[in-house]
Amino acid sequence: MAILEASETQANLRVAFATEILASRRYRAYAERAEADGNPEAAALFRSLSNRRCATADAHLEALEPPGTKGTAYHLRTAIMEEDADRYPAMARKAREEGFENIALGFETLAKAGRVRVGRLRHELATMM
Q: Which fold has domain 70-129?
C-alpha cells in the first residue's frame, strides 16, 4: 500500500483542501451580498455551492487525516502551529506605509485575536496533559 505521508499527492490534497475552503467561504460571502442586493435566487445558489465546496474540503481532510488516526491533542498542536498571528504586524506596517490605516488597524486586531486564540488552544492542550 502506498504511503501518503510526504508524497506529492499529500501536498496536492493540502492545496485542494485550502482551495475548497477558500471558495466555500467566498461563496458564503457572495450569498450574503446577493441577499443584501435583493437577489435571493443568487444567494441560494451561492449557499448551495458553498456547502458543496465545504463537503469536498471535508473529504480532502478525511483523506489527509482519516478519522481515528489523530487525537485531539494532535489537532490542538496543529491549530496552534497554524494560528500564525505573527504575519499580521508586517502586513499592518505595509498597509500603513501604503496609506491604508483602516486595513492596518484590522491586521493589528487580527494579530491580537490570533494571540488570544493561541492562548486558548494552549490552555486546552495543557488541561489534557
A: Ferritin (1.20.1260)
The rounded mean pLDDT for the chain is 96
The CATH code for residues 1-68 is 1.20.1260.10
For residue 90, what is its C-alpha cell? 508586517
**Domain locations along the chain:** 1-68, 70-129
* Position 122 pLDDT exceeds 90: yes
Number of CB atoms found within 10 A of residue 10's CB: 14
pTM score: 0.85
Neighbours of 11 (CB within 10 A): 10
Give the integer Cα–Cα distance in Å for 27 and 40: 14
d(C-alpha 84, C-alpha 111), whole Å: 8
